[in-house]
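Q: Acetyltransferase (GNAT) family protein, please. Structure only.
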Amino acid sequence: MEIRRFDARSATDDELRQLHRITVANQAITRPNEPAPTFDQYVGRLLHPVPGFGKPTRWVAVADDRIVAWTTMFSPEAENPHLTIVEQLVVESSARRRGIGTQLLRTFLPELIAEGRTTIEFWAVTAGGSGESWAHHHGFRATHAVQVQELGTRQVDPARWEVEPPPGYRLVSWRGRCPDDLVESFAVARTAIKDAPLGASEFHFAEWTVARVRAAEAELAEAGIENRVCVAVAHGTVVALTMVELHPHRRDWAYQNDTAVLAEHRGHGLGRCIKAAMTRSLVAELPELRSVRTQTSTSNVHMIATNHALGYTDVRIQIVLTHDVRALARTLGGQRA
Ligand SMILES: CC(C)(COP(=O)(O)OP(=O)(O)OC[C@H]1O[C@@H](n2cnc3c(N)ncnc32)[C@H](O)[C@@H]1OP(=O)(O)O)[C@@H](O)C(=O)NCCC(=O)NCCS
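A: Structure for Acetyltransferase (GNAT) family protein:
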């Protein structure tokens, strides 16, 4: 078996089809109630990785000229120079329990050590599945649990999205670039996402500044991702925000990203109000839209309840698993699988 780096941008059509096949087969096990991505949607996702985490690094395991396993990971900078996030590591169903997943780990860990990464986290592991058992076998600890939720925009009564702003607040929306007169308070409000529970994950949220807001907007624009924002303003200052990404390869789908309300403005229904306004505009302006996805900590009862009030339903629980890179490398050095 050969394990090598993989770049989706220079991959052959055949290689991409192999990855798609493995992914669809895996999702049939781990996400049986969710529609599998089409080949085009899947390739679109590979070519438009999640923004804000740096460039992805991918590896594949190849046996008899066929990809049997692959992984995608991100090594973010700024607040997270210690961390590598494994978005996905999948072994083809028929090739499992032969040590291939373990061999992939063993192969890329030395690079993480050389880059100075001290912590590795698997994100997006379906609770109760093979990934959780495998990671525990290797000494990973479960550090966080995330509720994935979805809004079926054609199934929900739009009356749920008719929410007036509380007295004293007005709503402002934009696409792409934050208006100059709001950008300073917008950066402060974005930093309020730090209050969102992260369990014992070793990921650190960003300290937003105007320069970082502008850099993030530019990164999204360069990736062809439309950034839609709705904020609540009081006395000329942003006090609450919600952000949605529209990815170019999926016009039927939107990703509901951060929502945050400054601590002193909580408890007035602002979160529900701005998310409702965002949903109204998405539904009115995007005729192809069918669903909006979001995720939040399982302990974030207020956000989960707000989403339920807007018509979101619970899809699945994902867990985060964390390990020390050097300790893991030492353990794997002495193990067969
Ligand atoms: C998790 C996964 C990557 C494991 O790959 P793999 O190549 O089958 O794993 P290995 O053969 O290296 O397993 C090593 C050991 O882990 C444990 N393990 C692996 N899968 C397990 C399972 N389903 N249940 C219980 N223990 C398991 C076993 O102790 C195994 O050793 P053994 O087979 O000698 O008993 C694979 O099952 C998979 O692709 N799952 C779906 C995607 C996923 O959840 N990825 C997780 C990280 S994002």
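A: Brief note, in case it's useful. The pocket of coenzyme A is lined by residues 26, 30, 86, 88-91, 96-102, 122, 125, 129-131, 133-134, 137, 337 (CB under 6 Å).
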